[in-house]
């Protein structure tokens, strides 16, 4: 693909209020697709928030209610959706819960990613995934590198995704206040150092333990900010020119000059 219009759905999330959150997300998604967006990104665990007090009801076996409704929307509008949910997997010793990233393309699940770096309190409730691989879309010549929130602080995650052929880096997050300057700096840095477009989608509003500043951002392969959200619910979008990645890497050959023999 030479270009694709992408959008971030920056929304407030009501803790444990799945139906309300899904309806809001899909309403905002309608705005995005009406403006031509083909790839839509939502905040981390957008349908429930970190509903620790009621994990049994908020978590879903795959494919649960949230995924089915997102698949329906994606099929109807022939678009790509990227988000995460609280996943429940039953085992011999009882249930395991994961922060499960999902990419849906044209109504079908194109790929999954279980967050490999749970942050602080998350470790008490979530198991960590053990695999970082890009998501290769089925119907489009496009590869998505997906990471979740805290992982924006780990350059190794984005670099692995870039080295394995990602065309676009996507970060879905509930990145809390007052770390707005850190979020923006890291979002731009991950784009610059990997010479890759980056969609970093955060939430807004107040959760049980933290408030959230938004600041969702779309950065191109040069590290130039193309769209940036404030601290309110909104949809931001931009037409990404993917061939710019090739040109940037020719001009500044970071990947060719890497010393993989010593690091």
From TrEMBL:
GO terms for molecular function: hydrolase activity. Keywords: Hydrolase. Residues 4-242 form the CN hydrolase domain. PANTHER family: DEAMINATED GLUTATHIONE AMIDASE, NITRILASE-RELATED. This is Nitrilase-related carbon-nitrogen hydrolase. It comes from Methanolobus mangrovi.
